[in-house]
Amino acid sequence: xxxxxxxxxxxxxxxxxxxxxxxxxxxxxxxxxxxxxxxxxxxxxxxxxxxxxxxxxxxxxxxxxxxxxxxxxxxxxxxxxxxxxxxxxxxxxxxxxxxxxxxxxxxxxxxxxxxxxxxxxxxxxxxxxxxxxxxxxxxxxxxxxxxxxxxxxxxxxxxxxxxxxxxxxxxxxxxxxxxxxxxxxxxxxxxxxxxxxxxxxxxxxxxxxxxxxxxxxxxxxxxxxxxxxxxxxxxxxxxxxxxxxxxxxxxxxxxxxxxxxxxxxxxxxxxxxxxxxxxxxxxxxxxxxxxxxxxxxxxxxxxxxxxxxxxxxxxxxxxxxxxxxxxxxxxxxxxxxxxxxxxxxxxxxxxxxxxxxxxxxxxxxxxxxxxxxxxxxxxxxxxxxxxxxxxxxxxxxxxxxxxxxxxxxxxxxxxxxxxxxxxxxxxxxxxxxxxxxxxxxxxxxxxxxxxxxxxxxxxxxxxxxxxxxxxxxxxxxxxxxxxxxxxxxxxxxxxxxxxxxxxxxxxxxxxxxxxxxxxxxxxxxxxxxxxxxxxxxxxxxxxxxxxxxxxxxxxxxxxxxxxxxxxxxxxxxxxxxxxxxxxxxxxxxxxxxxxxxxxxxxxxxxxxxxxxxxxxxxxxxxxxxxxxxxxxxxxxxxxxxxxxxxxxxxxxxxxxxxxxxxxxxxxxxxxxxxxxxxxxxxxxxxxxxxxxxxxxxxxxxxxxxxxxxxxxxxxxxxxxxxxxxxxxxxxxxxxxxxxxxxxxxxxxxxxxxxxxxxxxxxxxxxxxxxxxxxxxxxxxxxxxxxxxxxxxxxxxxxxxxxxxxxxxxxxxxxxxxxxxxxxxxxxxxxxxxxxxxxxxxxxxxxxxx
Length: 849
Hints:
By secondary structure, this protein is of the alpha+beta class.
């Protein structure tokens, strides 16, 4: 039988055939979950954010939970046990160094900071203290603060690993931000650092604490006096110390502010009272003339102990292993104010985080360092005793005392005799010298005075004698000698300076870690001359934070002497070997010259320019540089022409830029050669690459590339040699040489023609002489014939006529031959002259062309 269902009753989910809970992914990455409510029959839809956002929220909540104050999760019995353990450890560590503290109580009297009058060994005795101890401490403080905290800030950065543009930008951001942070955002840093540098040389150890102050919402760096910091007797350093305790004084107002910020738990404490001072603190107050006020300045004494605890397993997260915690208790009530984990959540090794930095003057036999009280305490006491003896001896010598016989009366009682005063003595018939006997006081001893000088000189030599070397530097001669003396005199301070450099680096690393933990993901910071975007990820460890001081150069005197030595070397070296601008900048920096960037601004980076612009830039002192892809031949030719121009580059006024232009031309020549070799090598690889791959040769193999470059270099050398030979024929210099050769050849031809003409003239003259000689011979024959006997004249008349006719014919023949020869010689001379004229005309035409 069917039963009618009430229409208002909810239908069971099983009958509807739907799932009780199901989820549906959405487009934005979130999910929508639906669940069926059996009571009212409705469907509940819940929208969930994406998994990564939920995971992020869960991580943030987990981290906040991890670093919370744990006292609310512990029983009262456990808290009382922890408080008792912390206090017992503190008193044990305090008692273990009681004798060590008492030594400083005696040493503080040697500072001579308190004015006092002495009645022992006599009234008005000298109470002066030799100033060698306080003088050395003040000088050390002055030198150290100048090196470790320059005006622009004490931080510089160093990139770890490969240097990239992103890392360089990140390093610059960190440097600018931390310098601004230490100079402006943390105004107490400089004052606390100076206080530390005064305590350090005297005591030998000093401590700085760097932490995040929740009430100020920023990091804080404080100096912790030695009587407020106690370390386990067996500790060798802070990192491996089993525990160390800081004594913190808080007024009721300051403690309430810390409670409101969440630093300490809000528990009921007794009223604040005047704390009991340590013997060291009482001695310091006595020297300074201070005394605490017990009515108006009540204080709470908190003991913050960094130690290892074995808390219940749900909090220790490490089983039976003791883990590092920071426990703070109130000394009077011995109640625990806070217990916090002192290790990173993601650190599997659970290593202790440090917030303190230990500065050592000189490492000693144990945890604490040695100071000037240890080194110069006895010398200061000896020098003080010698100085007081000399002053008292001089006082006795100037105002002596002695004995007088009983009954001797001096008018005016026993008042001291003033200079130029004479007093009457009632001495009846007695020798005055027998009645008044002065004590044999001597003048101050010269031996004691010399001993005082020796002690003082020994103490100063131990502390620091650099200033005396610098003052006498002019009499030492060369810079090298002065440098050697400076190095020898400052070894003590140099070693201390390196320890300070290392300790300050550790302090900066702590600050860098705090910035990584508490800075927002991105924030704007107003720094001098601009606004800086600083990111939390900047402090991810890729950039190392270092002090700006140089651990190898402990003073400005060293930098000045080294810069002077470099300047002398640069002046004696060839031009262009030293960067004179950077050298001058280093010298001015060592001299602490202000506004250096305005006085000597940085030169811009060189950019590609045309040849004439390069020359103009070099004249102005701007850097020039060759770049790939430029017309290197044009640059070389233009600059060479400028240097050979007698009105410009060859002018003596422009000689200073000659090395710059020569170096630039050499750079262009080298780049041109590189481009040629690389181009030929690429062509060879493209041409023979496939065949080499088929033959099993890898073209990318460095050895193969070296062979390809070697062959490419040979081809380039051959091509350049051929081109040089062709250019030699086409260059103006070669044309001038050819024209000069032609001119010499023409002149030679002229000389040869002149010689030929002169030879012809000489031959003609010789011919005329021969003819005249022949004519004389004929005349002589005629005269001989005429003077022959008359008897034969008639008979031989016919023969004589014939002979005469023959002689006349011979003469005519000779004349005819001579005329013909002369005409031939004249024609030859005229032909040679015509050839010379033609040659000269052709040479002139070639020269004009």
